[in-house]
Amino acid sequence: MTNIAATAAPSPAAAAALPTRLAKRFVDRLVIIVPYLWLLFFFLIPFIIVFKISLSQTAISMPPYTPVLDFRDGVSGFFAGVRELNFDNYTWLTQDALYFNAYVTSLIIAGISTILTLIVGYPIAYGMARAPATIRPTLLMLVILPFWTSFLIRVYAWIGILKPEGLLNQLLLATGLISQPLVILNTYTAIFIGIVYSYLPFMVLPLYSSLEKMDYSLVEAAQDLGCPPTGAFWKITFPLSLPGVVAGCLLVFIPAVGEFVIPDLLGGSQTLMIGKTLWNEFFSNRDWPVSSAVAVILLLVLTVPIMFFQQAQARAQEQGK
Amino acid sequence: MNSTWSRFNITSIVLGFAFLYLPIVLLIVFSFNESKLVTVWGGFSTKWYVSLFHNQGLMDATWVTARVGVISATVATVLGTLAAITLTRYTRFRGRVLFSGMVFAPLVMPEVITGLSLLLLFVAVGLDRGFLTVTLAHITFTMCFVAVVVQSRLVSFDRSLEEAAMDLGAPPVKTFFQITLPVILPAIISGWMLAFTLSLDDLVIASFTSGPGATTLPMKIYSQVRLGVTPEINAACTILIAVVAVGVIIASIANKRREVQRQLDEQAAQRG
């Protein structure tokens, strides 16, 4: 800000400030360039490589694919390579119903889990936002704390609870609510429980931050005017918390679509999700090109929600200023 | 405000927290179980903790995980802080949209995609999979979380402090280290801790990018969990939980104390 005045009217003081300004410009560049290059190299370029390898063929070698689009033969070799590109892996994905089903099931499971997480998370976030201001930081920390403990451990903890001879069945049998143990582990129900449990903090935190900012005198005014509490909730509270709802749902939905640990440990071998399919394709079948093609399609499917998420982030950032 | 905290609110919080904490509590309780059956209580015992320390594979994995965590969290904190400064301070430069995209996308990117893409990168550049590749992968995905945490602190930062320092002749680098850094330090520390725990937790990305001799603790736990639930894993998990919980609690107390101190300083400054 001060530099603008200095450049407008050259003065002895500005001349003295020149080295400082040059230094500042150099530091500015460095601050931008270092993380920029890192992300370019370790985040963007890997995706291009995934795309490239999804167009290659499986080979019994190390690495297990035939090289495509190599620049070693110069530009002409590159264009010759373009003509030889093979979309077999993608044709294969469309022909085998397994993959299509895995994508659709993943989207449905992630969608249902997101709604369930919202239903479970909303009352918690609401209760926290209405709590006395003195205990709110403690409540906030209690929501964040499980997030710090390992994801794997939290999923693992549910195996012991949901097993046929597990703690939940023992409790239900002992209280006489059921006479036969429920089969929950290795079903889609277990996946829903796992996702809701693991992603709950991601839902509660954005909900809480938008509910906390809300002006409750609006609700009181509506009630004074004779609006029933549920009506006031749907007409005032919920619409005002919508930014939090959107952010929370995206934070749950997007990673849940590609989730691997939860379907693998709680869903068993009978359940189908795309993250698990990719993992098996890669680790069990050692088919790198097909798993790359699976990843490319998954990324395309998720592009729209990810763009939404980024816009929401950018908007939140603007509001923060 | 107090009167509006209804019974419904209290019930939903209590139930919600029970849901969040009960599985972890049960896991901890059963790590002290005498019986080998994880769901039947056979009396109190710490024998699983003893056998844990004689499990060489597990100990090696712990050591690898700790080193990967410290190194990657430290580098990620530096890079993430720079990224956060870029995002908040430089609103106009070429490729800014791409940059903010690359910072925010990894937050929600499914881990299988990140893991696979990084592995293919390492293979393409001919880097042998092992300790180094896991560390590089962890730096990449945790730096974005650091960036978001630090950014939220920078947004609320009062820039007139910096301008005052510069007007008084402090060079930009000195201004950063003497004015900006102390103010955003709590965010940087919590960013580091977040990066460290994310690295400590990660199974999927580590499985893709690690090689022989660099098996991390989650990979080890995962391979044993697939064979079934055992009290020994419960014990290992309990220790991990304890380490993280103690760290988080110490950090939050330190944070609070610093915050109180800062408020006192501000009051004193206003009075003086």
Write the layout of secondary structure elements.
The complex is a heterodimer of chains A (321) and B (272).
Chain A: H1 2-8, H2 12-54, H3 74-84, H4 88-95, H5 97-130, H6 136-148, H7 151-162, H8 167-174, H9 188-212, H10 217-224, H11 229-240, H12 242-257, H13 261-265, H14 274-283, H15 288-320
Helix pairs in contact in A: 2-15, 4-15, 5-9, 5-12, 6-9, 7-9, 9-12, 10-11, 12-15, 14-15
Chain B: H1 7-31, H2 47-53, H3 56-89, H4 96-108, H5 111-124, H6 131-155, H7 159-167, H8 172-201, H9 204-209, H10 217-225, H11 231-271
Q: What key phrases describe this protein's structure?
A:
heterodimer; A: 321 residues; mainly alpha; MetI-like fold; 2 domains; globular; disordered N terminus; B: 272 residues; 11 helices; 0% strand
Structure characterization notes:
The complex is a heterodimer of chains A (321) and B (272). Chain A is mainly alpha-helical and 321 residues long. Chain A folds into two domains: 70 residues, no CATH class; 228 residues, Orthogonal Bundle (MetI-like fold), CATH 1.10.3720.10. Helix content of chain A is 76%, strand content 0%. Chain A is globular and about 75 Å long. The two termini of chain A are 17 Å apart. By secondary structure, chain B is mainly alpha-helical. Chain B has a single domain, classed as Orthogonal Bundle (MetI-like fold). In chain B, 78% of the residues lie in helices and 0% in strands. Chain B has eleven helices and no strands. In chain B, helix 3 runs parallel beside helix 6 and helix 7 packs antiparallel against helix 8. Chain B is globular. Chains A and B meet through helix 2, helix 5, helix 6, helix 7 and helix 9 of A and helix 1, helix 3, helix 4, helix 5 and helix 6 of B.
